[in-house]
Amino acid sequence: MANWFVTKLKNQLKKYNRFINRIKVSRFKKTLQHCGANTSIQFPVCFEGPEHISIGNNVSINAFVHMWGHGGINIGNDCLIASHASINSVTHNPDVSPYRNSIETLAVNIGSNVWIGSHAVILPGVTIGDNSIIGAGAVVNRDVPANVTVAGVPAKIIKNHSV
């Protein structure tokens, strides 16, 4: 009898947690500039300046993703963003001292059907073309054309492909 009760309790707690998560995601999506249909967000994530972040349809964002959106972040449709990825649209001017006295914002634009690997870093002002793959741990400091795979620090094209 005790086993049955414990199993029932665990199942009810799982249902409750899924319900709470749906409410959390729903509220979180409303803080964004735009959030398309069928977008999945795994908590915890951290979005600074969510009112400047626009996400397309069918986007999957895994846990521990951090976005600094004050300069604008636009994510196309059908994108995958793996855990611990960082997308930053805010930086400091290296010609101003002390650095903290200067803040520059440069929009980040991510095309459709882009896969960003875990621990990848996307720096301010970067545009990533459609159908591209950003390798795990890559540091993207310049634009990425469509239909390529980039990897490394700094990220370099390692493969051309077509989808």
Radius of gyration: 19 Å
Which word captures the global form? globular
User: How many structural units, i.e. domains?
Assistant: 1
Q: Could you name the CATH homologous superfamily?
A: Hexapeptide repeat proteins
Ranges where pLDDT stays below 50 over 5 or more residues in a row are none
Q: In whole angstroms, how far apart are the ends?
A: 56 Å
Strand content: 25-35%
The name of the CATH topology is UDP N-Acetylglucosamine Acyltransferase, domain 1
Give helix and strand order, one letter per element, not per position: HEEEEEEEEEEEEEEEEEEE
Average pLDDT metric: 92
- Mind describing the biggest β-sheet? 7 strands, mixed
Structural class: alpha/beta
What percentage of residues falls in helices of 4 or more residues?
10-25%
Strand order of the largest sheet: 2-5-8-13-16-18-19
Number of strands: 19
Please, how many helices? 1
What CATH first level would be assigned?
A: Mainly Beta
CATH architecture: 3 Solenoid
